[in-house]
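Researcher: Please translate sequence to structure tokens.
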Amino acid sequence: MDGKGAGSLLNSVIGKAGFAVAMHDLLGHAVMAELMMNSVISARLGRDVAEISLMETKAIPQLSVNARISLLEEIMQSEGWDEDFPFVIPVLRALFNMRNKLAHSLAYGLETSDAGDVKAVRWSFRRGARTEETIDIETVMGLARSAEAVASVEMSFLHVRALPTSYWTAE
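Model: Translation complete:
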């Protein structure tokens, strides 16, 4: 095998591994964001700790992710929290849109440019028609970074704001 072929193979292996790690990271943040969304919504709508717990484990997870995002958006707007946390809803929408793309498509291959940019080629099928989409690894990594900040920091602050006073005073 000539040097160029070995380099292409190495780039392919590194590209696949890098993309797999980026997707895994993104999916992990999506799980965390979903759990935090359930907590914030339940904390805001529940009257006491027992009711919040019941809503968080039984009621809110029954809603679709899009319905939960819309409900969270409505809560944030009514409380004025959307001004303090303007990136939460757009990041959640982008995160779950990408999660759905990854979950409902098949990896077909990778494209690597001469500059080293890696893009995943994914196929999805709907009603017998195949669509092909390329997803840039930089997009996945950037969205994973944004999702981590929203899920672990901003949603934690929202959760504190959403909890009733009785939670903090042990009434």
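Researcher: Any highlights?
Model: The helical segments are 3-45, 49-59, 65-79, 81-84, 88-103, 137-162, 165-169.
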